[in-house]
């Protein structure tokens, strides 16, 4: 009996063993201490940064811009709700990511794109660009560019060079082709010997002025016309640290260097500065490539990512059949993000941890 009593566990010890162990969360750095830094907060900043770009699009393209952007945003919200329901997960439209995806997709489309292209592109952006990977935070490609690439390849005629110029509109800004389209055609004709250098200078005269390109009084997609509006919104994002400055810095730097080399070699009818302020280079650098989910985590990796986007962008503009290359450049560099994260792991303070000696 004495032995039996001795083996009986003490009541206090039993109660202590039933207490739950302290919840210790172990995770790699960086550790975010600012509780206000939420997805909704970041997406709200992006929307504020996009406000000057949207305002300029409405000024230039009027009601067409309102319909195009609004349709993309509305479809993205509906698609987000639908895919969350299909996956039996709570709806995530309140984080603002679907609104940002729709706004960027709408701004990347021409003013004349038919309504079904905006709807299809938005559904693909949310479905194939985000939902199939598990939702926001798990996607490896920029959702808006996934939708844009899908409709670009599926509706080449509706989104080609002829989509930007038509006689049906009363808009003054669409009286001629986009600056990059003109430069692409002039460079091709000059290389083929179809025109002389003098003819090329005459054809490029209307697009050689930097001031209209900077202000945005030129034709193009809704969000790519005004370099000034993009810079205002992009600098706001960088100052608010909702976008990493290393990425647009890398894009602009590599774009200037490579476009300058192409100009020296006679491969393009544009100078390096023309390449920067025309097309979607600045819009892509500040609002597309800076997506925190699909870009690297480290500062060095972000800068290398931006350099890669700028290099691919200029190569696509000069050597491919497309006058613009932001969409494909960003998607290609998105695929390298895991590798850049692995290559640019920061060195721990004090050096790497010592390895145990082998016996």
Summarize the structure.
The chain is mostly helical and about 350 residues long.
How many discrete domains? 2
Number of alpha- plus pi-helical segments: 17
- For the residues shown, what is the average pLDDT? 82
Helicity, as a percent range: 55-70%
The number of E-state strands comes to 0
What is the straight-line distance between the termini?
A: 52 Å
How would a crystallographer describe the biggest sheet?
none
Compressed to H and E, one letter per element, the order equals: HHHHHHHHHHHHHHHHH
Rg, alpha carbons: 26 Å
Structural class: mainly alpha
The rough form would be described as: globular
Report low-confidence residues grouped into runs of 5 or more: none
Beta percentage is under 5%
Q: What order do the helices and strands come in, and which of them pair?
A:
Layout lengths: L1 H6 L3 H8 L20 H23 L1 H24 L10 H11 L7 H13 L15 H12 L24 H14 L4 H8 L5 H6 L11 H14 L5 H19 L7 H6 L3 H8 L10 H21 L6 H10 L1 H7 L16
Helix pairs in contact: 3-4, 3-5, 3-11, 4-5, 4-6, 5-6, 5-7, 6-7, 7-16, 8-9, 11-14, 12-14, 12-15, 15-16, 15-17
Please describe the structure with a list of short key phrases separated by commas or semicolons:
single chain, 359 residues, mainly alpha, 17 helices, 0% strand
Could you characterize what this model shows?
- There is one protein chain.
- The protein is mostly helical.
- The chain has helices at residues 2-7, 11-18, 39-61, 63-86, 97-107, 115-127, 143-154, 179-192, 197-204, 210-215, 227-240, 246-264, 272-277, 281-288, 299-319, 326-335, 337-343.
- α3 (39-61) runs parallel beside α5.
- The model has no long low-confidence stretch (mean pLDDT 82).
